[in-house]
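As described in the Methods, two query proteins were run sequentially through the folding procedure within a single session, without resetting any intermediate state between them. The first query and its resulting structure tokens are shown here.
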Amino acid sequence: MAGKYRKSVFIVTYHKSENKIFYLILKRKLHWNGWEFPKGGIEEKENPLEAVQRELKEETGATPLKVKKFNFHGSYRYKKLVLDREGIIGQSFSLYAAEIKKQKIKFDEKEHADYKWLAFEEAMKILTHQNQKKSLKIVNNWLTRSERENL
């Protein structure tokens, strides 16, 4: 099947509180059901950093305090045809981490049904897809290494 991969960003979103790290996980309901972190397509004439900031605002209502790009990329095919993405058979992604304030999340109710702030172990248990679990491990390793170096 011929088709293109939509360029996108994965945004492992976190909040630090009392030497603990909490990750924002969203309950997906549009196109599939499961748990994920914020992510989204890069629009025409938009660079990946702009996409991170826009997607965070759209999916959480938050503005990032810090953003870090990671040298981790991947792609995946959609399990079924996505009607509102004609000619697109999957997504390619670049990994970013974004720190936000812990706040009430204003999620897009068309895309998501709920959210949770979770510690690493709990987030790993409920994330639906392996590429997101791998992304979370990469960010968590970076954050915990950074924390140890700052002691």
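Immediately afterward, the second query was submitted; its sequence and tokens are:
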Amino acid sequence: MDFQREQLEEALKTLGAVLQDQRTPYEPLAIDGSALLLLGLIDRPTGDLDIIALLHDETFRKLDTLPESREAASRQVGAALGLGDGWLNLGPSSLMDFGLPNGWEQRLAVRQYGGPRLHVPSREDQICFKLYAAVDRGPNDKHYIDLRALGPSRDELLFAARWTVTHDPSEAFRDELITYLASLGAEVSDDDLA
């Protein structure tokens, strides 16, 4: 099921109520389309909430699996609201392996849903994630469409491009990246990515 911002917020409030009743702390880091919806930066529906880390002892730690209590609460909310089991998606958590863009923690937005707090990277950081995904998936993919909707400046694209090559330093990726940047109005050379 795809949901709009209102449905996503309802799901998060419901999850927040369940976890608050259980006195279960929960501070996930969300990215991608759902995060852009919550920031009001896009209006296309999304099928899930991509979370990549949990805040624990003031440090975000990559999520490979949800802790059982949070997984059970997520399934309960998914069933109650007709969202299915996969409405919380950990797929992009591999982004944590090589690090997020410099300074991302200082740019976070925080949304409160009952007890749990959802951390959402800024527009600048979302541009990084979208550029990386767009180059990986192609120009007809939702990530490229979202990236165009964000209307990034040349400087924002260059910041994002420099981050993406820390995740994929291959020559093939760089060549494709330069092509994508040109399609977005940012002519760059390989030297600009250093």
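The chain has seven helices and six strands. We note this only descriptively and draw no conclusion about the first query from it.
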